[in-house]
Write a structure and sequence with these properties.
This protein has about 350 residues and is α/β, with parallel strands linked by helices. It has two domains: about 5-165 and about 195-225, Rossmann fold; about 165-195 and about 230-285 and about 300-345, UDP-galactose 4-epimerase, domain 1, CATH 3.90.25.10. The chain contains twelve helices and eleven strands. The strands form three sheets. Strands 3-2-1-4-5-6-10 form a seven-stranded parallel sheet, sandwiched between helices. Strands 7-9 form a two-stranded parallel sheet. The chain has a two-stranded parallel ribbon with strand order 8-11. β5 (about 105-110), α4 (about 135-150) and β6 form a beta-alpha-beta unit. The radius of gyration is 20 Å and the shape is globular.
C-alpha cells in the first residue's frame, strides 16, 4: 500500500490541489485545515483542526509516512497572526511529526525569505534577508525546519515563487476583473521587470518529487519556479488580450504611484503590501538549477501559461463571497481605494 500522506492547509489553494493530486494517483491522503474544505475529493480523508494544536496534530500524523506542511498565513494578515500561524504552526507540525516518528516532512516555504535580492537569478545559498513580517516568519520557520533536519528528520524545504493556476485569486483577481470589464490595467513604471512565477501544476510535481526522492537528495532546500517567464508588462498584457476588449497595460510614474500606494496600504484601504510594490520594480527570479539537477524538477508551464490558466478558471467559476476576501489565496482581495481608480482606466 502507498504511504499515507498528511497535508496541512488542505482548504487552501496549494493544499487542496495537492490532496486531489495525491488522491488521484492512488496515494492515501489526509487533509487537515482549520476551515472545512469546500470541494472535498471523494478518495481523500479530511480532518478539521488547527496546526498549532500539537497534541491534535500528533494524533493525526500517527501512522503517516510523510507530512506536507502547506498551512500558512498571507502577507495581508496582521503581523502577529502571520508569525503565530507560520512560525508557531511549523514548530507544532514538526514537533508532532517527530513525536509520532514520521520520517519525512516536506516544508513549503517561500522565496520571500530572500527579501529583495539584487543577485538574480537568486540561488538557494543566498542569505535570508527578509524585509517584512511575512518574509521574517517564513525565514524563522525555515530555521525550525533546519533544526529538526539536524536532529535526523528528513525535511525537504521548497521555496516556490508566487504560484498561479485555477483557483488562485488574491490580487490577480483585480487584474482579471479589470480585464473582463474591458479596462486598461496600470503598472508601476515601464513594466519591464522580469518577474518569475510558477504554475500550480509544476509545484505539485515538485512536492511529489520531494516526497519520493531518496532521503539524501530530498533532505535539502530547493527553489521552485517557472523556467520560462517574460516581463510583467508582457504577462499582464496576455490577460488583457485574452479578454478580447482591446485593453492595454498602462505605465504609471513609479515614484509618485509608489508613494500613494504605500500611504493607502498603511491606512488599511489598499491590499497591496510594501514588498509586493518594490519587487514589481526590479527583476525578480531565482535559479532552479539545483532542483532540476538533483530532484529532476522539469517545469512544463511558463508564466504566461500559468496566468492564463488562472484567468480562464476565474471566468468559468463563480467569484468567492466578499466576506471571505483576503483570508486565503482562493479569495479575491478587497480592492479598497484601488477600485476608485477604475474610472481612469
Amino acid at each position: 500500500m502507498a504511504v499515507r500522506v498528511v497535508v496541512t492547509g488542505a482548504s487552501g489553494m496549494l493544499g487542496g490541489n495537492l490532496v486531489r493530486h495525491l488522491a488521484e494517483r492512488g496515494r492515501p491522503v489526509l487533509g487537515v485545515d482549520l476551515r472545512p474544505g469546500t470541494d472535498p475529493h471523494p478518495l481523500a480523508r479530511y480532518a478539521t483542526g488547527d496546526v498549532r494544536d500539537t497534541a491534535l496534530m500528533t494524533g493525526l500524523v500517527a501512522d503517516a509516512g510523510a507530512v506536507v506542511h502547506c498551512a500558512s498565513a498571507l502577507p495581508s494578515y496582521p503581523d502577529e497572526e502571520i508569525r503565530d500561524v507560520i512560525v508557531g504552526g511549523t514548530g507544532s507540525v514538526l514537533t508532532a511529526a517527530a513525536r509520532a516518528g514520521v520520517p519525512r516532512v516536506v516544508h513549503v516555504s517561500s522565496t520571500a525569505v530572500y527579501g529583495l535580492p539584487t543577485r538574480v537569478p537568486t540561488p538557494e545559498d543566498h542569505p535570508r534577508e527578509p524585509v517584512d513580517a511575512y518574509g521574517r516568519a517564513k525565514a524563522a520557520a525555515e530555521e525550525i525546519a533546519e533544526k529538526f533536519r539536524a536532529e535526523g528528520m528528513c525535511v525537504p524545504v521548497l521555496r516556490p515563487k508566487t504560484f498561479l493556476g485555477p483557483g488562485r485569486m488574491g490580487l490577480f483577481a483585480m487584474l482579471f476583473e479589470w480585464a473582463q470589464e474591458g479596462r486598461d490595467f496600470p503598472i508601476l513604471g515601464p513594466g519591464d521587470a522580469r518577474i518569475q512565477m510558477l504554475a500550480i501544476e509544476d509545484l505539485l510535481d515538485a512536492v511529489t518529487l520531494a516526497l519520493d526522492a531518496p532521503a539524501g537528495v530530498a533532505n535539502d532546500t530547493y527553489n521552485i519556479a517557472a523556467a520560462e517567464f517574460a516581463t510583467l508588462r508582457e504577462d499582464f498584457q496576455a490577460v488583457l488580450d485574452a479578454a478580447g476588449h482591446g485593453g492595454r497595460v498602462r505605465s504609471l510614474p513609479a515614484r509618485p504611484a509608489l508613494a500613494v500606494l504605500r500611504l493607502l496600504g498603511r491606512a488599511g484601504v489598499s491590499p497591496v503590501y510594501d514588498r509586493l510594490l518594490y519587487k514589481l520594480l526590479a527583476d525578480s527570479y531565482v535559479s532552479i538549477d539545483k532542483a532540476r539537477e538533483r530532484l529532476g524538477f522539469a517545469p512544463r508551464m511558463s508564466n504566461r501559461d500559468a496566468i492564463l490558466s488562472a484567468y480562464d478558471s476565474w471566468r468559468r467559476h463563480p467569484r468567492p463571497p466578499a466576506g471571505a476576501a483576503g483570508r486565503t489565496s482562493r479569495d479575491a482581495w478587497r480592492q479598497g481605494a484601488l477600485s476608485l481608480a477604475k474610472v481612469f482606466f
